[in-house]
């Protein structure tokens, strides 16, 4: 479970995150929805302790990120905004490197790695060096290495960015599977259909603030709009940046 | 497995697969020194040998006025060439190193027992001519002294009357020390080998990782950043140490095949030299790895890091240049300054001197202290929030 309490992060005059609070529960998919520049990436970066908040608290499975950043990272599997691979290593070696850094045993690494390669349908590319990988192949490898240690909580920053329809569908399938395994899945997106199709809970942020935190149905009811797209536009107050 | 070891092994493995890094770290970087050195020595030796062996071919104007002088000079190795019309122009245009002109009244003064004049026409700003001028002057002076002595004897006087002070040269330089003077640039080549050995890795492991967007996912792992840094530094050190070793071996091979003894010099570049060089260079390996990483961490991109490091590469040349240009006396404190200590120490070894264990331990200890400080600064920069973010 991930709890965010009153988080602030300013870069000079830019109020990237300006008082964000929400809870992402286990066994649920929580979507962080917002237009470009809303502060999604910055919020997530504070969750996986890459950045320190100016103010506010992050709790992952009850552990305070300010107290024990390393323990928090141990509870997380992260697909950051930056998802560069090591070009001169194969996909398998990329996954294995992160698994080792997680402190996993050799036998366990083997088992988990093969399991993920199968689940993400990347057997054909697993032994290729990642130089020249397509977007989709890169995302798959990055997800596999992020989840190799079997984390309870999964953070994905715009996971479907740059993926085609088929790849997006299979990634959504994979995220439902993670939810089914009882994990807490938190992902960001600026595509409302995606959020609507997947989420149990939607946190809408704009200009660094949470403007709605509901289930998809409640969101529709609250705004009085039948169409989710219209609902979002109404919440955010304009239709900036919410193109599908 | 330990985090540092995991990072270290991965970086070494990844970079062993990179041709460019390997080429610069294990081929170009370490061997450029021995290569230039061999080239330099070869030029010097060939030139010196040529000069000494070859007869001195010099245009002589008015040879017919002093046949005895010319005969004597021929015995010393002079081959008179036909006179030139304009000797001043000839030396300026480097058609001749020097021209000897004998005036028509040479014989007249000679008979009167007066000083007969000869002229040497040359341009001392032409570097290559120095040897010829000196040789000709020496020949003329020898002839003059001999003839003077004979005149004194003819008048019943002792020739020593003309030489109340006699000078004997006792040069204290040994062949090694003369070689050391000539090769004061050599220590820089070792620093260069270390620098080039680690440079591409240092850039790649920090600026490169950030540019390729893999630093952020790496730091999302539950490991402290300083351990990641130490693993990376270890990989850089291993590459620069390999480079240094190859360089030292390269110089050893040079020392065996270059016929330096023909110049009266001895090149001591054997295993004992190699071991001591590697030992006193060890702190520099760590220091440079840290500094290179520090610079790469500040640079905004791979290219920028490359530019900065190319400039940083010039800094270690300073002690080499200063010590070879300025006549600075080696003092004990110099061993406490990294780079300077190595420069002074290696030069001392080259000149055939020994390094005391005190000098070695001063050099190594002070170097290590500074290296640790540099590493601490780099670790502090590694902790910063901005480091991982490529934007
Ligand atoms: N390191 C930084 N330095 C300065 N400003 C930053 C930095 N990171 C983010 N910002 C600014 O903070 C704001 C929020 O950025 P953020 O990347 O969190 O948005 P986002 O919701 O992820 O947008 P997108 O959908 O485009 O990814 C933006 O105005 C951005 O310019
Ligand atoms: Mg973003």
UniProtKB/TrEMBL annotation, chain A:
Keyword Flavoprotein: no
Entry annotated with the keyword ATP-binding: yes
Stretches that traverse the bilayer: none
Listed CDD domains: ABC_NatA_sodium_exporter
UniProt domain ABC transporter: residue ranges: 2-232
Single Gene Ontology MF annotation: ATP hydrolysis activity
Keywords, sorted A to Z: ATP-binding, Nodulation, Nucleotide-binding, Transport
PANTHER family: ABC TRANSPORTER ATP-BINDING PROTEIN, ABC TRANSPORTER ATP-BINDING PROTEIN NATA
Family to which this protein belongs: Belongs to the ABC transporter superfamily.
Protein name: ATP-binding cassette domain-containing protein
Phylogenetic lineage: Bacteria, Pseudomonadati, Pseudomonadota, Gammaproteobacteria, Lysobacterales
Automatic annotation (TrEMBL), chain B:
Transmembrane annotation, as ranges: 21-41, 185-207, 228-253, 273-299, 311-335, 355-382
GO molecular function, one term: ABC-type transporter activity
Compartment(s): Membrane
Keywords: Membrane, Transmembrane, Transmembrane helix
ABC-2 type transporter transmembrane domain span: 31-372
Signal peptide: none
Record-linked InterPro entries: ABC2_TM
Annotated GO CC locations: membrane
The keyword Methyltransferase appears for this protein: no
Keyword Transport carried by entry: no
Membrane-topology annotation of the record: Multi-pass membrane protein
Pfam family membership, one: ABC2_membrane_3
PANTHER family to which the protein is assigned, alphabetical: ABC TRANSPORTER PERMEASE, ABC TRANSPORTER PERMEASE PROTEIN NATB
Official protein name in the record: ABC transporter permease
Species in which this protein is naturally found: Dyella psychrodurans
